[in-house]
Each structure stands twice: as structure tokens, then as C-alpha cells.
């Protein structure tokens, strides 16, 4: 039983191995075999000699004399270094010797000479399967089958493709888990930021109290904080010289103590005339009801009953 993939922690995810069918071999780490010089054009005489060595190599292979077969085929390659079939044939012998890396080097050489070498793709695919490189093996074997299908390729694909399918399913599984993890992390980060914003907003708003505003920046900060908490805001526009305002002041404070989930702001129009102008305040007292920075209603004048009615309508006690 062979295994593909290495176990590793990726944050909370530990990727398991994939249980695969088929035996794999240890990579051969021999020195590279002798290769011909593909820039040298073989003479007619050398091509004939190469064919003789090839025959000797094939005969030795049929007798199970693998080392002798390699020697003869190497001689053939040195004599005719532009023959893809010679490299592909020697690659087949290396396969029988369970030397997949040597076979891959020969298959690569064959494909450099002839990119349409079915035997080159076949040898390389089978060698990669021996090393457990199932996806690469399947690719080469499928190309070989398109170029020149044979039963050996079909049999090899039947061994390789189930493992490729398992690897693909394994990758999909962990890709899905990683996406789920990333989504959870992003959601946790959003919640963390929101909690920080809520904490910061709560720190600048005084529940159950009237907040007197002294600057435009402070005014905007309080509105923003209230919006982040989805709180209703009451803007109480007043003036020190306003008699009705003096009557409504204690009423407003009492309402703030009662409706602790509502933000009660107080703005002196003489101190912050620009704010009063922006909110279209033409008389005092004026009470503007604001949600998310936008006015939804207002009460003008010292109308205690009207103010309480609007509070009952838009906020909960």
C-alpha cells in the first residue's frame, strides 16, 4: 500500500495522507547514464552499427540479461544520438531494472528528439507511476494512448487512475476545509472588529445621561458611535436665553435616565451655530430624532407630551 502527501498542520487543519493502491519503489540515485550528443548527425555507417547494437540489446533483454541490454543500447545511442526510439527502448530496460529516474531521463531525451514519441510518453508515465507520481503518470499515459494506444498502456492506466481520483478528491476535501477555515477566520475577525467598535462606541456614550456637545468633531463622533451601536439619537437644540428650554431641560434629563438605550445629546445653538444650521434648526427647543445619522422625525417647542409620544414610537423604555 502506497501513500501520497505529507501530513502538516495548516492552522487548525491537519492534512492526512491519502491511502493509495499499488507499490512504489525507492528513487534510484545512480549517476546519470551515458547520453548521446543530439547535435551530432549520425552517418549512415553509424546508424547501421547502432541498429546492430540495438538488436543485441533487445536479444539480451529477451534473455533477461538487463545489464548487458543496457550496455548494447548505450553503444547504439552513442552511435546514433538522434534516435528517439533508442532512448525509449533503453528507458524500458531501466524500468525492468526498477530504475525509474534513469528511465525518465531517457524518456525525456526521446521526447526532446521526437515530441510525438508514444513510447517516450509511455515509458515516462510508467516510470512516474513507479515513483508514486500518479497525476504526472496519468498525464503521460493518456498522451501515449492518444499517440499509439496499446493494451499495456490501458492496463497501467487502470492502476493509476483510481489513485489520481483519490488524490483529486483529497485535494478538493482539504481545499473545502481551508475555505471553511478562512471563512470562519474572516467571520471571527469581523466580529472582533465589531466588538472593538462597540466597545469604543460604548466608551464615548453615557447611558442614562445627557451628553452636552461642545464641538462639531465631538458631535460627529457621538453620532458615529451611536450608529455603530444602532442606537436612536435625540438631538436637543437649546439656548441659555430660551425660557421654554429651561422648562424642558429637567424633562429631557429624566427621559435620558428612563431610556438608557437611547442616546441623548444636547447642543447649544449659540455655541454650535453651524451644527444647528446644518440640521435646519429655526427655533428652540427642537428635538430631532436620528437613526444612522439621518433625521427621521422631530418635535419643535416645549412639547413634553409630544416628545414622550415620539420616544414611545421610536424607542423602547
Q: Which tags fit this structure?
A:
single chain, 317 residues, 5-stranded mixed sheet, 9 strands, disordered N terminus
Describe the structure in brief.
The chain is of the alpha/beta class. It has helices at residues 44-62, 66-79, 84-96, 100-113, 118-130, 134-148, 151-204, 216-228, 243-258, 273-278, 304-314; strands at 2-4, 9-10, 13-14, 18-20, 210-213, 233-238, 263-268, 286-291, 294-300.
| Assembly context of the chains | single chain
| Strand neighbour order, sheet with most strands | 5-7-6-8-9
Whole-number mean pLDDT: 90
Give Rg in angstroms: 42 Å
From the helix content, strand content and strand pairing, which structural class follows?
A: alpha/beta
The best one-word shape is rod-shaped
The fraction of residues in strands falls at 5-15%
- Residues in helix, %: 55-70%
Instruction: Note poorly predicted spans.
Output: 1-11
What letter string, H or E per element, gives the SSE order?
Answer: EEEEHHHHHHHEHEHEHEEH
What is the number of helices? Answer: 11
Q: Distance between termini?
A: 70 Å
Task: Characterize the biggest β-sheet.
Answer: 5 strands, mixed
Total number of beta strands:
9
Provide a descriptive summary of the structure in words.
This protein is of the alpha/beta class and 317 residues long. Helices cover 59% and strands 12% of the residues. It is built from 11 helices and 9 strands. The protein has a 5-stranded mixed β-sheet, sandwiched between helices. Strand 6 (233-238), helix 9 (243-258) and strand 7 form a beta-alpha-beta unit. Helix 2 runs antiparallel to helix 3. The relative contact order is 0.07. Residues 1-11 have low confidence and may be disordered.
